[in-house]
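Residues pack. One example:


***
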Amino acid sequence: MLQFLLILCLGLLAYTYAGYGILLLLAVKIQNLFKRTSVIADHSDYTPSVTLVIYAYNHIVNLPAKLQNCYSLDYPTDKLRFLFITQGSIDGSTEWMESLRDDCARQLDVQGGSKPGSKAAAMNCAMQTVTSPIVIFSDVNTQLNRLTIRNLVRHFQDERVGVVAGEKYIEADTDEAASGPENQLFRACESYLYQQDARFPKVVGTVSALLAMRTKLYEAIEPDTLLVNFTLSMRLVAQGHRIVYEPSAYTQQRPVYSIEKELKRAVELSTARFQSTMRLLHLLNITRYGWLSFHYTSQWVLRWVVAPFCLPSILLIDLALLFSAQSQPNQSSVWTLLFAIQCMFYSLSYIGYRAKGKHRRFSVVGFPLYITFMSICGIQGFVRYWRNNPAGTWNKARPIDDIELQAS
């Protein structure tokens, strides 16, 4: 029984971090043999009215840069509206934004108010004021590339498309601890999976920092929802709407200040993933959702919910087999070798952790550190979700720019 569990855990890890990507690539190759790739017409004259919704709770440090970025976007000014949600802010965000409105900034709208609430609740309220056919959600601490709006909305020429997801890039800096090679490898793998997944009618998941959708498809979500964009997009795809991945529309964000802050942020993100998984359990019904269920299980459930528990399970099961097989030298050598490999794996992870803490990088330890890091965060996130009922608020790790601005 223990041997079966060990093989199962090893198999799940192998499938999650390698097998699914390979299988997806093969499926795409086979699909291309029988289906011609469609090309989206790039009509520059297709410019529907758009509302860019930006959640900016207590983010006055980021507001000037974000506002400047908004006005630099290549899109007709008479068809682009900016809606900043500062509801509940106590750092002067609402007052500062309102002062700009007084200066006749016609494109700018602000949803203020002193009553604090969750992001989901604030977005539900804000969407009641959106009248444009297309709405785009963006984070206040990210920068959009100049053609983001055009690259997103062009897909809505296809009436089957309900949601378009953009890409997210983390800016690298040689002096920053949290932007090492393993993060770049992770982003590259994420982009690869999105690109391959996007070749199918059902895309799983969206980048939280950039999402466009048809306004008429928006349905109010639970106020305590943490992963708002992901929950919205998955419910729409379950209803039969298409989600398109557009890598030419992207956001740029500074890395967080330290690995400790990244750990805190990752634990909160893991908690949110468990919450979303529990609310989307119906998507596991493969007889009803078919390929969507397969993609969702492989790319989301196994990777973020199941895989974190496999790593410590392998160690514990191996130790149990090692002690139980002491009287059988042939089997004992196998478990001893596996234990030695795990010791080396965790040693490399620790070296990577110490190196990042000192702002050093060693690419050879990047992968072990990433796998161990995600496992720890996943387990802590599960414990936090099990013990507490998330209220839909975030305590995000601050990017380095925030630290520098507050220190100046």
In short: Confidence is low (pLDDT under 50) at residues 174-182, 396-408. The chain is about 50% helix and 10% strand. The first helix runs from residue 2 to 34.
